[in-house]
């Protein structure tokens, strides 16, 4: 993700001055699910020839490894400007240029039972907040529809752990009582989730589909589940207007799904302020996007200047 100047972001994180922020408490109780780590990250492919698409470190075929080594030696003789141009070409070969982040929201059916004025206030606040945040952040967009992951530890009874077997780290038996995934208490629809399969034999290609792939979400970089409730956390402290957490990330660690709980009391007509609600939603969106003490250490500099230092 491309971030804008730190002072602006710090200011946005501090806008929730009308309510108490309990993000750290909430996030610590929410497990974050990432894709299976069974293939190299595309950013490992730094010295990349047109027909060499794997990391030299992870490539087992010695001929391809030798070709990459030769390519590295060739690049080592480039001038600084040539190295920088190569870094630019490498990035454009793998992904597009950063584009404004596309944030989509989804609400469960049961959250639509409150009064129409409350619904209109909430929709208007999220529309304004997303419009502001989308202008501040850019991401390298995925080519496919967004599909969230299923937790293998939930749907699988046991996993093949013999490293010499063909189906190492894959599910061998499914749990009978598995249904679906959730994010901060919100049930994720099957349409938003990738499928899951089991491999009955450790070395045979036969597999059984337990859940097929869902339809996925087009034109989506981050999916936010939104619900309005009067939860225990809302009732315990009237200064809590909303809270949030991220629950899934992509292979690079960027959050791609999270949830925001809006305390229903904050939508009541008494003392309601559209401006305050918009700023509260912006604050929670920033947490969903990865502004948390757990993820600060995982931030990476993806600028061209940083890439040029790696080969300089």
UniProtKB/TrEMBL annotation:
The keyword Metal-binding applies. One of its GO terms (molecular function) is metal ion binding. Binds 1 zinc ion per subunit. It comes from the Eukaryota. InterPro entries: Peptidase_M8 (IPR001577). The keyword Transferase does not apply. Keywords: Hydrolase, Metal-binding, Metalloprotease, Protease, Signal, Zinc. The active site is at 284. It is an enzyme of class 3 (hydrolase). Its cofactor is Zn(2+). One of its GO terms (cellular component) is cytoplasm. Residues 1-19 form the signal peptide. Zn(2+) binds at residues 283, 287. Its EC number is 3.4.24.-. GO terms for biological process: cell adhesion; proteolysis. Gene3D superfamilies: 3.10.170.20. PANTHER family: CILIATED LEFT-RIGHT ORGANIZER METALLOPEPTIDASE, LEISHMANOLYSIN-LIKE PEPTIDASE. Belongs to the peptidase M8 family. This is Leishmanolysin-like peptidase. It comes from Bagarius yarrelli (Goonch).
